[in-house]
Design brief:
86 residues; mainly beta; Nuclear Transport Factor 2, Chain: A; two-stranded antiparallel ribbon
Length: 86
């Protein structure tokens, strides 16, 4: 989400999944403090509160045991509604 929404809290101590894939829940609860870039243009800072849940999915390298890929899923429509973008 970049500079539009500062760092959000997440709990990856409870990662679940198979040997080469892990998933964890992240909770976003912050104010929009900067511009948010979208495919349809920039949403200027609103200062409004954003509160949504997200899911992080990690692909684990079998040799190193470290994450080699991360995907982050969340409901963008809910986020945009909460900051008044539509």
């Amino acid at each position: 989400m970049g500079q539009g929404v500062p760092r959000f809290g997440s709990d990856h101590s409870r990662l679940e999944g198979q040997r080469h894939h892990r998933r964890g829940r992240a909770d976003l609860d912050r104010n929009q403090q900067g511009p948010l870039e979208t495919p349809k243009g920039t949403v200027e800072p609103s200062g409004k509160r954003i509160s949504i849940r997200a899911c992080n999915v990690f692909e684990i390298d079998p040799d190193s045991g470290k994450a080699k890929l991360q995907r982050h899923y969340f409901d963008m429509a809910t986020l945009l509604r909460q900051i008044g973008a539509f």
